[in-house]
Automatic annotation (TrEMBL):
This is GPI-anchor transamidase. Keywords: GPI-anchor biosynthesis, Signal. Residues 1-15 form the signal peptide. Belongs to the peptidase C13 family. Coiled coil: none annotated. GO terms for biological process: attachment of GPI anchor to protein; GPI anchor biosynthetic process; proteolysis. InterPro entries: GPI_transamidase, Peptidase_C13. Pathway: Glycolipid biosynthesis; glycosylphosphatidylinositol-anchor biosynthesis. One of its GO terms (cellular component) is GPI-anchor transamidase complex.
């Protein structure tokens, strides 16, 4: 029995889902972008993801900012505490870290396979065909598209869900070169802004953006269901009047559930293993 257990482990018990969460902003006035990433990380960790399944890029931990009155993320709708709602492990070296992460050069992707679903989320200040990096330089449409193409070359993956949550997010990917297993979700069209919740007088900033705030609310209400197509989910849960911008997707009509809930799989076990 012990031998069987060991062989099962060797032959491939693995986590099927991984996530890369990227905050391209920094400094206190961009509190909401930090909150976006932390809220999504909290969703994933509550659904079975471990810190080893999630790679987070954030240039700063804003909870260490001197202007923070309370050492936790606080919005009008929920509060997130370190080591309780999320695990604060960040990559924060440089602009190139972001492209390397999207390209598949990240330690969380070392054991991926054809069963792996990968969620990539990016937030920050965007424009027509670019997103700013810490107000110093830019990641352009071709940079990100090339990185997604390179990801396919070096990692075996089942599906990739790439969410761009920024102004003019729909221009951040060259859709004509989108790999066939990548679904691209944008939270705003060309010429549109993505929007935040109401201004917080207590924090003196906008605390979180509408898309992630409502996704967190939907998750808390346990309304992310298995088997619901992304097209139907967006139509029912993210109407323009709610998020004040147009949420769209390009690529396979996947199931969001498959990317935000963790699953354990056992694969490639020889037929005579239990003999």
């Amino acid at each position: 029995m012990l031998l069987s257990f060991i062989l099962i482990f060797i032959y491939g018990v693995s986590c099927s889902n991984k996530a890369i969460l990227i905050n391209c902003s920094w400094q206190y006035e961009n509190y909401r972008h930090f909150s976006n990433v932390i809220a999504l990380q909290s969703i994933l960790e509550s659904n079975g993801f471990t810190p080893k399944d999630i790679s987070v890029f954030s240039k700063q931990d804003l909870l260490d900012d001197m202007r923070m009155r309370e050492k936790h993320i606080k919005t009008d709708y929920f509060t997130l505490e370190k080591n309780k709602n999320y695990t604060p492990i960040f990559r924060n070296t440089s602009y190139f870290d972001i492209l390397n992460m999207i390209s598949g050069n990240d330690s969380i992707l070392l054991n991926t396979n054809e069963h792996t679903n990968l969620l990539i989320y990016i937030t920050g200040h965007g424009g027509d065909g670019f997103i700013k990096y810490c107000n110093r330089t830019y990641l352009y449409k071709n940079d990100i598209t090339d990185a997604l193409i390179n990801l396919q070359r070096i990692r075996k993956l089942k599906s990739v869900l790439f969410i761009a949550d920024t102004c003019q997010a729909d221009t951040l990917i060259d859709k004509s070169r989108l790999p066939e297993n990548v679904t691209f979700v944008s939270t705003s069209l060309k010429g549109e802004s993505s929007h935040s919740t109401t201004f917080s007088d207590r924090l003196n900033v906008f605390p979180i953006d509408l898309f992630i705030m409502h996704l967190y609310r939907i998750h808390q209400e346990k309304r992310i269901f298995n088997g619901v197509a992304l097209s139907e989910f967006i139509k029912s849960e993210f109407p323009e009047e709610l998020v004040k911008s147009t949420v769209t997707f390009t690529g396979p009509d996947v199931n969001l559930y498959d990317f935000v809930f963790q699953r354990k799989i056992v694969q490639n076990i020889p037929e005579n293993l239990y003999l």
